[in-house]
Amino acid sequence: MVKTGRVADEEKPEKAKKSTAKKVKLPPIPKWAAVPRPALLTLSKGMPRRKGYHRHETLMNKEKALYDGLAQLWGRHAPVFRLPHVDLQELETRPTTLKARAEAEKVMQEMEGWVSDPFSGTWGDKNDRRLLAVFSWHLNEKKDKPAADEASEGADLPSQEASPHAPVEYQTGPQGHPGRSLNDFESAPEKLRFRHGFPKAKLSRHHEATQYLHSVLHPAGPPVGPVLERVGVTHLVHGWEQQGHPGNFAVSTDIVRNANAAQTVEWYFQATQSMARRLAAMFKVAFPDYYQKYRRAFNAGVWTRSDPGPWLGRAIVWKLDVYMHRDGLDGGPTATFPMGAYQGGEFYLPDLRLKLTYRPGDVVISLSGLLYHAVGPWKPDLDAPQHGKITPGRISHVFFFPKKSLDVLEGKPPLWALRTGWGKLPDSWEEGEEAKRNAKRSGKRDATAP
What we know:
Elements: H1 56-77, E1 80-82, H2 88-93, H3 98-111, E2 121-124, E3 130-135, E4 137-139, H4 148-152, E5 168-169, H5 182-186, E6 193-195, H6 200-216, E7 232-237, E8 240-241, E9 249-250, H7 259-271, H8 273-286, H9 288-301, E10 313-318, E11 334-344, E12 347-349, E13 354-356, E14 363-366, E15 374-375, E16 378-380, E17 393-400, H10 403-409, H11 416-420, H12 433-441
Parallel strand pairs: 1-2, 1-5
Antiparallel strand pairs: 2-3, 3-14, 4-6, 7-10, 8-9, 10-17, 11-14, 11-16, 11-17, 12-13, 12-15
Helix pairs in contact: 1-8, 6-7, 8-9
């Protein structure tokens, strides 16, 4: 059992006593425990290409229109729930303590026998202030609508008039909200299921790319018993405050660990662009105000320009357990989704008394800095079909924006971090060049594109 790296420095005692015990030296990880390189000639397709889509810009426009449409469809499908026992203001003022975490863990234990919710939706506090958005599954009412994978991969979307949902009080408890259990989903005809989360094709591509990345950028976690494959957390962050150096912002060390790692990270951002764009479309619909704030800050802080944003950082939890925590160093909503071949791994939010099924491709966008959350026990599915040396197990992706980075980037011009080394160097742009580029751009192109 290992705690993930992003949650390690939140809940320390106020004054930790200096330990006199000798440090236990962990055994070295054997070389044979490296993440295997996939045996694939090409990655799985991400965005379907049709005849006539020759130019890259045309493909991107078609893709953006598709993803925006799917996200807006989620907005019309997803029910809006109210949680009368939750107050956002109380969550914002609640201190992060070991006692609070222990209480959350106790509630999670009580919820272990509850049924999980596999469906899409949004959850807000007693005043309908949004806390959580889930992109997973929806059951259509008409039988003549396209199947989930077909719609998600670009077939004609079902036409449906927009109908705003009035908030409904969500019923928590062992039996869950009526009509929203895993049994309700599995008993529904497949033709009625509509997928709001990521489809299998995109998951396969993202999984393959992630394993390629970690075959070069080895996870840095400690060994846990007999080591068959490395585990750990990889941080790909365009810029955050360096530990022990207040005010000094730089890219995460995983991005520039060595020459091969830097090359592979750039390739990884390119290989996963389509997935990131769709996630951004989800974020824009679920939390529009935060999206605009993140987008402006990302345009100023971007380092690897093949990352479409708007989150400044990604954490990849490679086959580790995720214990109860709050992401207290984040500046707002984070987006998470799991992938891989595994059993279990439900998503617990004890503050909300909510248990999500959280299967591969389900997306959760939440105020994770305010809400305690954890992933339930899981085990690799060794019987699941594998291809190209893709190994089983659970992989979690977290897209986040460090709060201190967000504060520094507020009001900064596009490409500020690249131009000034996060404010440590003179501006590399010549006088007047910025005005010329902005005039040429005329708001028609993304601010991160020269």
